[in-house]
Amino acid sequence: MYRINSKNVNDSKRTRLKHFIPSWVQDDSVYFITINAVQRHINQLAKPVIAEAIKDSIQIYKDAHKWHPKLVVIMPDHLHILASLNTTHFSIVQIVSPWKSYLKRSQQIEWQEGFFEHRIRGRESLEEKEQYLRMNPIRAGLVDNLNAWPYIWPESSF
After folding, report:
1. Whole-number Å distance between alpha carbons of 142 and 139
2. How far apart are alpha carbons 79 and 37 in whole angstroms?
3. pTM of structure
4. For residue range 40-53, what is the model confidence (pLDDT) as tens digits?
5. What's the rounded Cα separation, in Å, for the pair 129 and 72?
6. Exposure check for the chain: N or C terminus, fewer CB within 10 A?
7. Listed residue (10, 14, 26) closest to 119, CA to CA
8. Is the backbone of residue 108 left (phi > 0), alpha (psi -120 to 50) or beta?
């Protein structure tokens, strides 16, 4: 049985991700990004008005050539984005942080500090992440089938 010593967990400080992109990484690489709301286990994001504002802001960033979304899944307390990023002109932080700030101001979404990102390194990994994201609402018990969750947008929606 795996046990965590709570004293050690509480005493440690959270490590901040540096979001550094090596020079050899291609500009159009796809990233798996997860952003969490501060209040977990409370529906803050999977609401029609909020979700539409999120989708609109994603489109604005697409039109500004900051990213090209492949798949977006909004869950009640977090969201996932698979997108290629314009890292020639912007760092990952310069793309994601202002986007989060805009949604905080316009929709009063309280985000956790930072975000998680992982560069997708191959077609198989991309397909695995896409399937994982699509199944997220089912695994969470929010719906019974893939087509029932209204807050999943494939590339063609943008």
Report:
1. 8
2. 9
3. 0.82
4. 999 999 999 999 99
5. 11
6. N
7. 26
8. left
